[in-house]
Each structure stands twice: as structure tokens, then as C-alpha cells.
Amino acid sequence: MIKVSVLYPNNPGVHFDFGYYCSQHMDIVRKCLGDACKAIAVDQGLSSAGPNTPAPFVAMSHLYFDSVESFQKSFAPHAERIMADLSNFTDSQPMIQISEVKLAP
């Protein structure tokens, strides 16, 4: 299983609309990726490890797929639509990481 993590850096003054992201944007993502996407999780950054230190990321989403190929096949036809929606909820530029899941709950 692989995990596609989309990380939104928590730069000073960053805007992020969690209501829109969790309901409307993730609905677009679910519809576009279909059954290839096995699960989705969304995290809101609270802090870093030290006391009173900001989280390095304002938000993260994690999308789970059987394989990299499955992700690429489902994402490629809809990449433009998904990415075009970014301005509706944030001004942060996302970073993407694809990982192999070695241990999960």
C-alpha cells in the first residue's frame, strides 16, 4: 500500500479554509480518484514538538492507494481540475510525498 501525502507549509499569514477543504475539495478529490483511493485522512497542524512553536504544516492530507501506478492512473486525468481548486481554500503551495506504508494502525 502507498500513501500520497499533500503537505501545506504553515508560512506566516497563510490562509487555509478547513471547512471548504474537508467538504468541497475532498469531495472533488474522492469523485475524481474513485475506487482507486482506498482512504483519505486530513490533519490540521497544531504545533511543533517544542512548547509554543507553530506547526510546520497548516494542513496535511493522506490518500491511500494499492500502488503508485494506481495513484498515477486515477490522478493524471483529473490533475488539472484538482489543482485548479487550490485557490478556493489556500494560498499555501503544497508539497507532495509518495510513501510506501510499512506499518499502519
UniProtKB/TrEMBL annotation:
**Where does the record locate the signal sequence feature?**
none
What is the name of this protein? Answer: EthD family reductase
* Span of domain EthD: 19-92
Which Gene3D superfamilies does the record cross-reference, listed alphabetically? 3.30.70.100
- Extract the SUPFAM superfamilies matched here: Dimeric alpha+beta barrel
Q: Which Pfam families match?
A: EthD (PF07110)
